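Deliverable D5.2: sample structural annotation.
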Amino acid sequence: MLPLTDHNPRRIVPVVNYLLIAANVLVFFWELSLGQYIERDLFLISFVPARFWAAPFYPPNLIRIFISMFLHGGWLHLGGNMLYLWIFGDNIEDRLGHFKYAVFYLLCGIAATMTHAVLEANSRLPAIGASGAIAGVLGAYMLLFPRARVTTLIPIFVFVTVREIPAVLVLGFWFVLQLFVGVASIGASGDVTGGVAVFAHIGGFIAGMALVAVMGGLRQPAVARLPQDPWF
């Protein structure tokens, strides 16, 4: 299932969400500018679990956690992540506010990266992409807006249909799929996941649900009252 848009009104302009999308796109264009040196340079600046555990408190290793959140491995990787962030991030920012949302996003990314680092401690593959932080956004959205309608592209064998379905089904299906792949990959080679850090997705999703509750997201925002008309 591929979400195309949601039907969930917001009260504020999601400035932080727009800035996060812009930052990811700009960093990707910077990656393209590296040309033939892209693989070498990305390995140097991205998060690698085995390298991290060799010196976990070495400042560059800590900085790589944040850098990796904005790196992507290709147009499809970037496009898929930004689509999910565009659809679901604005309502989380609306509920938390601009500053809290920025903190929430970064904390989800850290939680996702560290989950991957713990469960794939010997991996020498770079863990790049915004998907861990975005998984936190998805977890928060499913908790806060399970009944929100999401227009979704659904492939059925050789046919494709578009339907509006509840967010809990779209995001629940996504999470179950990550769990299935993650469990199947335990004790297996990296070929099972195709190099995708599924444990980062799982960790980010769970962290998002927990963090949005801790940060006050479960409280309904106050309804703005219009000033009373003096003629009535």
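Annotation notes: The chain is about 60% helix and 10% strand. Residues 2-214 form a domain with the Rhomboid-like fold fold (CATH 1.20.1540.10).
The annotation will be released with the project's public dataset once the embargo ends.
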